[in-house]
Amino acid sequence: MTTTKLAIGSIFIGIAVLGLKTLAYWLTGSVALLSDALESTVNVATAIAALIAIRIAAKPADAEHPYGHHKAEYFSAVLEGVMIIIAALLIFREAFRGFLAPLPIDAPAEGLAVNMLATAINGFWAWVLITRGRSGKSPALVADGKHLLADVFTSCGVAVGFLLAVATGWWLLDPAMAALVALHILWSGSKIVKDSLSSLMDETVPEHTLQDIRRVIAAEAGGAMEAHDLRTRHAGIATFIDFHLVVPGETTVFESHEICDRIEKSLKDLLEDAKVTIHVEPEHKLKPSGAILPAP
């Protein structure tokens, strides 16, 4: 299933889950279940934002965006985090009202059953989004999946509080659980914003990927003297790699180009969507400290 189809699927899943959770709240009048439904309204909105971002990110580079549109997905992820935080604040408001005037819960069995059905759907779809998003290097899908996964955990917490309130008759447990849900959602939203902002700031690739890149350069740089000033960053599915390659003074332009082509091909075998820039330099530009040397 393509990234775009997954994003469209998230919209329909979000609408279905929102309908089920709203029904659960309508059956019971539970503030905790209302908090769960409020979070699902964010799921629908962010799924739409993710779809728009994915379509923009898929556009090829143009005159105004020569490096492509890959970062559009990170803006979607930031928006999702902000909307989650807003949802948490709305839930805090409902929890406060519940503390002021706690009410008994109606039709608990029916309401809980409907809510758990919605939670099961969310759990399955979160797994699909995170798995496919990581394999397709789509931060928007991964962020959407992590949000749904957080929703699953909070829904389970809501169910526990809901059952305790019904079993004990302590109706204050219902708004108390809603407040705990809001705290968890607040943490989840802030983490998504933090991770997305790091990517927007051109954070380097993970250390294990960086070591793989250095290994490939060293293995394929035969004929060169060294590579140095390696820099990397990732944006959506694209990984940008640039470095300087030092060749002996007698090396021809053709020979230098052959070395660069060999390195670039191997890097793209390692990272399918790698965007490689190599700056060839003469031997007096050697920088032994921190340099990548060709494999012997």
Automatic annotation (TrEMBL):
The chain crosses the membrane at residues 7-28, 40-58, 74-92, 112-130, 150-170. Residues 10-201 form the Cation efflux protein transmembrane domain. The keyword Membrane applies. Residues 206-283 form the Cation efflux protein cytoplasmic domain. InterPro entries: Cation_efflux, Cation_efflux_CTD, Cation_efflux_CTD_sf, Cation_efflux_TM, Cation_efflux_TMD_sf, CDF_Transporter. It is found in: Cell membrane. One of its GO terms (molecular function) is ferrous iron transmembrane transporter activity. SUPFAM superfamilies: Cation efflux protein cytoplasmic domain-like (SSF160240), Cation efflux protein transmembrane domain-like (SSF161111). Keywords: Cell membrane, Membrane, Transmembrane, Transmembrane helix, Transport. GO terms for cellular component: plasma membrane. One of its GO terms (biological process) is intracellular zinc ion homeostasis. It is a multi-pass membrane protein. Gene3D superfamilies: Cation efflux protein transmembrane domain (1.20.1510.10), Cation efflux protein, cytoplasmic domain (3.30.70.1350). Signal peptide: none annotated. Belongs to the cation diffusion facilitator (CDF) transporter (TC 2.A.4) family. This is Protein p34. It comes from Harenicola maris. The lineage of its organism: Bacteria, Pseudomonadati, Pseudomonadota, Alphaproteobacteria, Rhodobacterales.
